[in-house]
């Protein structure tokens, strides 16, 4: 039917179903987008596995968006035109909490991310406030779907205040870690990438990693001591979310170092507090990204420095989404990014 659209829904943990819903109409201040590509991310995987405490079911996942402007609601600025290629900042902010009052909108206490606390973009169409729409015709449709996941790593490096003086260890070379490697390299830092998968480590090299360590075959501590002449990295970015990688970050960072934590660990983690105090560490979380991070990623992609096919593990149509997600569950180390084409 003309006013119906196809949607991908996680009906319950472990079950993805293709349904139809009514096509949305843009309200005042909103833009109706025709979705082109949407990426599956780690939060979608957690939702599929029933491990995301923020998700209720059924839920339409997806917040890594490539789309085209289909229709403009009232009171939308004239700079937006039908047919423009866009991506979307998928977070909300309340404007009232302490994070918002400091203009750290990415950490809003009341944030609702598309595909997590509210239905996402894995649908034929989605209507969003114009303030969240970023138009960029210089990027292709696949690149636009990679903007948001890259921003998370960019933001983490900004939080770590990385400069060309630093040696940065990135633990975990999936999509988020890849973005952190790119950003740290752009800052002029010496970058060390650690992972358990050689394919991802090769991609880390292409992103700008000066050194790579396979922590299954190599001793992480010994290799870091060799590379840093016994000092340890001055910044560690944790992009995995496991107890052992959190502990490694604290243990391996240099004295007076900074640790930036992106990954969510589902289990409680024990630390030796002596290391926090003795090293006088700065340990910080890093959540989502700010508009400036989106602008930085878009500039990077426009410079033509990235072959996006190096990051895309698979492109599927909606009917194949369930099988693709199950494949990711069975081979988590082999997937960088799965895109769904609408």
Quick take:
With 342 residues, the chain is an alpha/beta fold. Helix content is 29%, strand content 25%.
List the topology elements.
Layout: E1 4-12, E2 15-22, E3 30-40, H1 42-49, E4 64-72, E5 85-88, H2 98-101, E6 125-129, E7 133-135, H3 141-159, E8 167-171, H4 175-186, E9 190-195, H5 198-207, E10 211-214, H6 220-228, E11 235-238, H7 243-252, E12 258-261, H8 273-278, E13 282-285, H9 291-302, E14 312-316, H10 321-330, E15 337-341
Parallel strand pairs: 8-9, 8-11, 9-10, 11-12, 12-13, 14-15
Antiparallel strand pairs: 1-2, 3-4, 3-6, 3-15, 4-5, 5-7
Helix pairs in contact: 3-4, 3-9
Give an overview in words:
It is built from ten helices and 15 strands. It has 342 residues and is of the alpha/beta class. Strands 3, 4, 5, 6, 7, 14 and 15 form a seven-stranded mixed beta sheet that branches. The chain has a six-stranded parallel beta sheet with strand order 10-9-8-11-12-13, with helices on both faces. It has two domains: 4-137 and 311-341, Quinone Oxidoreductase, Chain A, domain 1; 152-285, NAD(P)-binding Rossmann-like Domain (Rossmann fold, 3-Layer(aba) Sandwich), CATH 3.40.50.720. The mean pLDDT is 94. Helix 3 (141-159) crosses helix 4 and helix 3 crosses helix 9 (291-302). The longest helix has 19 residues, at 141-159. It is globular, with a radius of gyration of 20 Å. Strand 11, helix 7 and strand 12 form a beta-alpha-beta unit.
What's the CATH H-level homologous superfamily of the largest domain? Answer: Medium-chain alcohol dehydrogenases, catalytic domain
Could you please say which CATH topology of the largest domain applies here? Quinone Oxidoreductase, Chain A, domain 1
Strands, total number: 15
**Broad shape:** globular
Distance between the termini: 17 Å
Number of domains: 2
Strand content: 25-35%
Query: Quick one: biggest sheet?
Result: 7 strands, mixed
> Radius of gyration, Cα only, in angstroms?
20 Å
Helix content: 25-40%
Q: How many helical elements? A: 10
Write down the overall mean pLDDT. 94
GO molecular function: oxidoreductase activity
Organism: Prolixibacter bellariivorans
Domain Alcohol dehydrogenase-like N-terminal: 27-134
Keywords: Oxidoreductase
